[in-house]
Structure formats: C-alpha cells, structure tokens
Amino acid sequence: MESLHGKNCLITGAASGIGRALAQGLAREGMNLFLADIDTDGLSEVKEELERGGATVHTARCDVSRYEDFLKLAEESRSRLGDVDLLINNAGVASAGLIDELGRDEWEYALKVNTWSIIHSIRAFLPRMIERGTGHIVNVASGAGIVGIPYHAPYIASKFAVVGISEALYSELKHACGGIDVSVICPTFLKTNIIKRTPIAVPRRLLEEAGGEDVAARMEEFKAIFWEKYTRGAPPVAKVAEKYIRGIKKKRFYIFDTPRLRVAMVLKGACEPLYKAVLRSEGRKDLRMIEETLKEMGIGVA
Fold this sequence. Notes:
By secondary structure, this protein is of the alpha/beta class. It is built from ten helices and seven strands. A seven-stranded parallel β-sheet has the order 3-2-1-4-5-6-7, with helices on both faces. The N and C termini lie far apart (56 Å).
C-alpha cells in the first residue's frame, strides 16, 4: 500500500460532500492539500478546520466548467504547493427529471460540469505529469456511470462519459507512461450538498395541473421530499471516503463503495435478460417514490 504522507494533492469540489470528506481523510494521511471549489465560503471553512489539525492547505476558486480556470489552478497550485502527485477531479452536479420533460439547459449543465471538467483538468495537469513521469489521476464518476438508472438521463450521460474517459486514459498512459496511475471512483447513494443544487424537472406538468400554487415553490417542495426518500439510509460520507482512500492507496482502477456495482458489470455481459430486469426494477422503484412524494403533497396521480 502506497504511503501518501508528504505528497501533494489537489481536489476539485472540495468545499463540501465527498470532496470535503476526502480532504479530511487525506489530511490525516499527511498529504499537503490544494483545494478548489466555486464555493469560496465553504473552502474557507474546510481550510480553517484542516489547518487547525496541522495540515498544509491552499485554496482557490475554480469554475470547473471553464478551461481557463483550470489553467490558472494548475499554475497557482504549482507555484504555492509544488507539483501535484494526486489529482482528484471530484466536482460535479446532479440533474433529475423525466427524460421527455428535460430541456437543453439540464443536459448542458450536467455535461459542462461533470464531463468537460474532467477534460479540462486532464488538459491542464496531465502534460506536467507526463514530463515528470509520475502522478495519480482520480476521477469521481458515479454508480450511475455503471448502471443507467432512470430519471437522471443527463447525469447518467455525463458519468458514463467520465468512466469511459478514465478507461481510455488508463489504457493510453499505461502504454506510453507507466508511472502515471488512473482510478475512477463510483459513489452510490450518499447524502451530500449535490442534492440541494440539483435542478429537477419532475413532474412540472402534474404540478401545473394541480393549480393554485406557485409552481417553483412546489418544485422545491417536491425535490426536498423526494431526495429525502431517495437517500434514506445513506451511509456517512466520511466513512465512505475512507473506502475511497484505501482504494487510491492500493491504486485500484475501479473504486466502489458497494459490491453491487461489480455484480452489475458482470450481468451486463453475462446475462442480458437479468440485467434488463434490474433496469426495469430500478425504474419501478423510482416511479413509486415519485408517486409517493406526489401523494404526500396532496397531488393525485392518474
């Protein structure tokens, strides 16, 4: 198992959720940290917390949908901390809604942040890693990058892309530059701030038909109730982050927090009928939660 003590790590989306939990865990491993996020207040909180524990921490604002921000981030992190040994591309957003109600904005939002951020980061940081002949790139995808769960099509598309990019990157680098490692983390159901920022297009038509209410407010009400149901029983993020860090130290390519994802990968190739049954089951489960949420709001579902 590789020691991370004294090495340099950069994490995007580090102000909350998985990014923050990874920063906390890696600080305990003795890593020097450069944390980036669009949420500067959250970054300040994390920085103060980790510095109280004796960690070396630098921060910078970064809009991961912008390549220019990554170029600045690469330059600033190198000047203040040194070369990055571990690059964790964690920043991401979610989206939800019936696929026929999702507009172009929802698709572009998920792809710009979740997929293009990985591309921008690789372009900004990989050349220096190749020059040095060493480094470890960790892309945070999702279990939704393995299994096409329903009602999240833009998110699914973006995370499947992250998994594919990670596989291609691993293949190329292990052929041309064996000193650089690649991992892809595939989280499942965690209760993080990504939920609060999730635009949701379910079920606008039904809310409009209900009448007499402000649709925007009702959408927020729906989102709050639905996500509470969706993430009920989710494990603590800090505990799951410990699993991810163990996977990073062992230089695993796929890093999962549940063995169910490995089973799903096997089923895809070994038994298509059973895998299709799994997809149908996921659809029924989520549809049932949507209907239960609407009933709690006093809206009937035909």
